[in-house]
């Protein structure tokens, strides 16, 4: 588990100005705290942290020498320039049940010669702090055309104590014929081109009428 060292942020400090100084604003909140803490983190440390962590990952947040077990709950970026804008952490307590999410990773994809269609990339769930997890693997080896994996078939840690916040029949991944996939894509592109052509004709109709008059 990674660690981030933060300092308290002045109430009157402006987030935009902080970011110009290489500092990222953030907040730490939770039942174990009397009030939410306005924090700030060095940009370089945040960038290093995010190379290995994402939303739903546990982290140790240290503030003024005090360590807090926390969950990264929200991460926002500045539109267009895609720069880190703000971090939100939820302080955790042992025995507490919290909402989190785990990413879905497909392994042995290279052993499938057909087309793999992944339609679900993360699983939202609720579980005890001690049993939170961030990764679920789906082994693609041996899968053939028509085979599919549903949420109910995932190898979820401590499944009997975890509440998955999705219907069990939700599709995760399926295998389809390459040729069929190509035909579907060609058909879709043709349909889109036809629709564009029809819209274009409708838009130019008034001008054509004026020229005739």
Helix content: 10-25%
Largest sheet: 6 strands, mixed, barrel
CATH architecture of the largest domain: Beta Barrel
Fraction in beta strands: 35-45%
For CATH, the homologous superfamily of the largest domain is named as Ribosomal Protein L25, Chain P
The 3D shape can be described as globular
* pLDDT averaged over residues: 86
- How many separate domains make up the residues? 2
What fold name goes in the CATH topology slot of the largest domain? Ribosomal Protein L25, Chain P
Rounded Rg: 24 Å
CATH class of the largest domain: Mainly Beta
Distance between the termini: 75 Å
Secondary-structure map with pairings?
Elements lengths: L1 E7 L6 H6 L2 E7 L7 E6 H8 L7 E6 L2 E13 L4 E9 L5 E11 L7 E4 L3 E7 L6 E5 L8 E3 L12 E2 L6 E6 L1 H35 L1
Parallel strand pairs: 1-4, 2-6, 7-10
Antiparallel strand pairs: 1-3, 2-3, 4-5, 5-6, 7-9, 8-13, 9-12, 11-13
Explain the overall architecture:
With 213 residues, the protein is α+β, with helices and mostly antiparallel strands. 23% of the residues lie in helices and 40% in strands. The protein contains 3 helices and 13 strands. The protein has helices spanning 15-20, 43-50, 178-212; strands at 2-8, 23-29, 37-42, 58-63, 66-78, 83-91, 97-107, 115-118, 122-128, 135-139, 148-150, 163-164, 171-176. The strands form 3 sheets. A 6-stranded mixed beta barrel has the order 1-3-2-6-5-4. It has a 4-stranded mixed beta sheet with strand order 10-7-9-12, with no helix packed on it. A hairpin with a 4-residue loop joins β5 and β6.
């Amino acid at each position: 588990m990674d660690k981030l060292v933060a300092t308290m942020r002045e109430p009157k400090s402006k987030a935009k100005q902080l970011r110009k100084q290489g500092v990222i604003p953030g907040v730490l909140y939770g039942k174990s705290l009397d009030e939410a803490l306005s924090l700030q983190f060095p940009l370089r440390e945040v960038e290093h942290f995010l190379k290995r962590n994402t939303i739903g990952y546990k982290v140790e947040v240290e503030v003024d020498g005090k360590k807090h077990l926390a969950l990264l709950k929200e991460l926002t970026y500045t539109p267009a320039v895609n720069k880190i804008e703000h971090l939100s952490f939820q302080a955790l307590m042992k025995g507490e049940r919290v909402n989190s999410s785990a990413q879905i990773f497909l392994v042995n994809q290279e052993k499938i010669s057909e087309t793999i269609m992944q339609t679900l990339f993360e699983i939202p769930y609720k579980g005890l702090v001690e049993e939170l997890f961030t990764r679920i693997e789906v082994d693609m080896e041996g899968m053939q055309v028509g085979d599919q994996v549903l949420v109910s078939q995932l190898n979820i840690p401590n499944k009997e104590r975890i509440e998955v916040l999705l219907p069990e029949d939700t599709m995760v991944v399926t295998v389809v014929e390459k040729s069929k996939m190509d035909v579907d894509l060609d058909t879709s592109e043709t349909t889109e081109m036809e629709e564009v052509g029809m819209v274009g004709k409708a838009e130019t109709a008034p001008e054509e009428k004026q020229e005739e008059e």
